[in-house]
Write a structure and sequence with these properties.
The complex is a heterodimer of chains A (174) and B (407).
Chain A: E1 16-20, E2 26-30, H1 31-34, H2 38-45, E3 55-56, H3 62-80, H4 89-102, H5 107-120, H6 123-137, H7 142-148, H8 156-168
Parallel strand pairs in A: 1-3
Antiparallel strand pairs in A: 1-2
Helix pairs in contact in A: 3-5, 5-6
Chain B: H1 18-25, H2 30-36, H3 41-48, H4 50-59, E1 63-74, E2 82-92, E3 102-113, E4 118-120, E5 127-131, E6 134-139, E7 142-146, E8 153-155, E9 165-172, E10 177-184, E11 193-198, E12 205-207, H5 215-224, E13 234-236, E14 239-245, E15 251-257, E16 262-267, E17 276-281, E18 284-290, E19 294-302, E20 307-315, E21 339-341, E22 347-352, E23 355-360, E24 366-369, E25 385-386, E26 405-406
Antiparallel strand pairs in B: 1-2, 1-25, 2-3, 3-4, 3-26, 5-6, 6-7, 7-8, 9-10, 10-11, 11-12, 13-14, 14-15, 15-16, 17-18, 18-19, 19-20, 21-22, 22-23, 23-24
The chains are: A mainly alpha (174), B mainly beta (407).
Chain lengths: 174, 407
Amino acid sequence: MAAPESGDGNNGAARMVTLISSDNTRFEVEAAAASLSQTLQLTILDGGGGGGDGIPLPNVDSATLSKVLEYCIKHAPAAANGGAPNATAVDRAELERFDNEFVNIDQSVLYSLIMAAHNLEIEGLQSLVAKKVADMIKGKSPMEIRRTLGFPDPTPEEQAEMNAHMLEYGWAYE
Amino acid sequence: MPSPRKKSNPTLTSDLPEEVIADILSRLPGKYVLRFRAVCKAWLRITTDPHFLAAHMRRRPLELVLCTLLEERPLSGDQVGSSRDLAFDSIPVTAADPADQRRLIRYPGYYTSTPADLTYFGSGNFPIASCAGVFLFRLDTRYAICNPVTRQWTELPQLPKRCMFEYGLYFHRPSGEFRFLCRSGYFANDVTEYYITSTGATEPRLVISTGDVDEAANKMIRWIGNCTDHLTHVVLQDRLHWKVPSSTGDCNLVVFDTLLEMFHLMSAPPMSSKCSKLFDMNQRLAMVNFGLTHIDLWFLEDYNAGEWVHRHQIVTPPTLTVLGDPQREPWSNNYGRITAASDDADEVILGKVGSLMVYNVRTKAMRALDFICEDSWHGSGPRHLFRESLMPHVARSSAGHPLVQFG
């Protein structure tokens, strides 16, 4: 056992775990950061992911996982503080700045992130990405949404229903 | 012929799990959810599901309703003169960003001024109560509720003519109905009867009198219907709470249990002035008292034991000292405009028309909301809080009112 140096955790240096992406890339990360994932938390509490083992994540590719971990590492200290009730305004502003920057990304990356956050159950990330997508679609018409989301063109019957809805709820289209 | 669109890869496609789509849509203001019901059948199904509607409402911010007189416009055509619209706008209690102010209701041509005359059509069609996403309107001798987002109107079964004291609008969870409690009996010797009229019924129902309370309590309960901000009662734990002054100068709380349909009294904290307001902070009953020198915040720590705890004392900012003036009578003009509201674990909005402050209970910091501009005369009615909802009213819908326009 290494002698405690930093006072970080009980064993001195922070405990590390290894996560393995679907394309077999290994990521070594502090257990506290990975534990933001509800899915991983139990495994990590049971002592998993340490040493040469690693936790395989067959649904998350390396590009997405590195993005997810970037978020977790940034948010882990605040989360350890129990949602950071004592965080200073500066800390909060910095996290907010990070979050805004973080979701300023391509739609395809956003999609992978939603799925990863959902599968890994990372609450903060889920809500951050969901909010971003909500903001993106807010001003659009139903037809624009269909196009943005890659839906096939509506059938004549669907088109008629869309028109009827617009007539009935005109104010919701203003 | 439209060609089938190629799926660009990978994109936000329909293969997102429905719970993820629901989570995204539940973060949108009601107007957009309403619009996106036309996107496809799956989105229509998701956004009309009762669980979705409940989650969506929980995510809507609590908003303060402001009454504003809009800019003067010349009359149309050959007429000489001008008119002004009156509007009810809302602004989130926590965001407090001028950009978040939006129009809920508009009264076109509220004031009309010609060389010969100045006319206005009075406050008869203004919303008199707000609850769970709907406003209550008094339209001549009838009452109707309307959801400004879905614009569904429902007229309430007509109350007996002698039923002239309004008590409270509430959402009755077990039945999913909106209910409205009223009282009859004008003079002290008149028989006092309480009626409930609701969206789910065809006629009003006579409910129990005042329950097991003594004459003094009875008096207090009768008093509610006469006070100016009676329709801004606090709903918590299926109960309506009103603050009433007692003969000793202190305050009492009158509670109506909407499940048992009975009144009872509850203790209130000691007050240093006549100017106080009951509100709900984080599902807890709270009371603010505006004094000349200090503003006190009390919280009901133990609901069943009626245990009030004094948590904060704030130096009264100069703009609010008028509220604590001992010479001021509770029924004086701007009494009804007092605001206290919270939608957050930390922040509470306090004050009156024209001088609203935000107090943070964690940092104990106070800041002014000076951008909120409101017409002080029309803003003198009850101060309503509003939270959007897309929940449909059980019951038939009815036609709206020509003078009330939304958006």
